[in-house]
């Protein structure tokens, strides 16, 4: 863990070597999701609610998903851009160092410009929380934290899976963006507005539903039955990363180096 | 120390003709060809040796290095390095080795060299005292002091290579793999790198395995040569053995006081002849160089003598020809 922060420090230094580019990219990262948020806002100007969900509730959904996404893009970027590492042969170098490949790839790249996106989603979060009547208790705060953590884990898991494919295909698979970008766009709305099949897929297989929809029911006091299950449902989302790590380790064994 | 036995490795290579049509075809019906990169490679290397691992492009040098440094898994074969099998106990194994890829950097591009060194200190968990003493030694012998605070992207190739070699030795490796360490370096940097490799080999007893295309590297460093071609080991022996086996001719050039006397010595052929100079190719199997010189000195008033052996470059070319690789 200590090493991870050391990596972070060095790469942060690298990134601010190019200061103008860093600042401009961060600003850009602020406005891209901001426009998405504006479109949600405008949508609710036409319709008072979306399948029974108010603007502020959807905003909360949006914020949790985007915070998770921006954190994972910032801290797990190494897997997101892993195909480049294979193409350039840099993965060889990691293999001759006495640390796990997982930690080293994680530490190979950070995208600090995502701070723009993070800031924007935090603003959305504050906006939603200020306007929602939620009686906060410890369990609800814990739930909210778990939701964000769960988002980070799921996105990281998906990056990990698509990075694993690179061991066979060299180039990254654009298909996997259906899960990252698609998953993000989809899960910024409550899962209940979608059809049954989609709901099941994103609850049990790629458990985006556990990031915001299910625990949100608990926070908004809409949960029926065992409230505790709703509260800890983000933990199920976190477990998603375990098979991804197994897949990764299997992929590493099939690594064929390139060039000389 | 290093025991390699019966390594085999093959790659599947996609086959495709040039052109767009062929490219599209290959998407739906990819054709593969299996290339045998290594075939039954075995050798043993003892502590403190410097071994030159040579062969033409595509012979399997890099593949071997990648297998014994833990990057690739072979199809079959055994390998034990200080008790570890590289592809099974990767993390334990790589603690003992340093690897320099001449064509790839291991330093972080945008930060000063020293930052990379500190990061390596944490990656390898090098104790503070070891790190300090190694750093001092490396700074002194590789003349790094002026370079450590410069970002890597601003270093020249020679400077960078010195920093790379320094980086691979911070953790006191017992074995150093050098994959073309002098590629693209100027004469001064080459000398510096070679001297340094000799120094750490003698002072720290680091075992060095070196792949290179530059035969003067081999001459300056390696006692022993392993030659491979088309994935097979062809020769394993000392440089002297190699020379004895393949050097069949030497050139003797003599300057003397003007003379027009004709001369023919058995076992030599005249390469050039002027009034004051004669150049002879000596067939070492028939006559010794010293005999040739003594015959010459009886006939001429010799001013200067030069004896040239076939350069190692040429021996290697002959060698490749002999093995048809």
Automatic annotation (TrEMBL), chain A:
Superkingdom classification of source: Bacteria
TM helices/strands, residue ranges: 21-44, 50-69, 118-138, 144-170, 201-220, 232-252
Sorted UniProt keywords: Membrane, Transmembrane, Transmembrane helix
PANTHER family assigned to the protein according to its UniProt record, in alphabetical order: INTEGRAL MEMBRANE TRANSPORT PROTEIN, SLR0610 PROTEIN-RELATED
Protein name per the record: ABC-2 type transport system permease protein
Organism expressing this protein natively: Alkaliphilus hydrothermalis
Taxonomic lineage: Bacteria, Bacillati, Bacillota, Clostridia, Peptostreptococcales
UniProtKB/TrEMBL annotation, chain B:
GO molecular function terms noted in the UniProt entry: ATP binding
Keyword tags: ATP-binding, Nucleotide-binding, Transport
Stretches assigned to the ABC transporter domain: 22-255
InterPro entries, per database record: AAA+_ATPase, ABC_transporter-like_ATP-bd, ABC_transporter_ATP-binding, P-loop_NTPase
Residue ranges the record marks as coiled coil: none
SMART domains (UniProt xref): AAA
Taxonomic superkingdom: Bacteria
Pfam family, one: ABC_tran
Protein name: ABC-2 type transport system ATP-binding protein
Source organism: Alkaliphilus hydrothermalis
Biological classification of the source: Bacteria, Bacillati, Bacillota, Clostridia, Peptostreptococcales
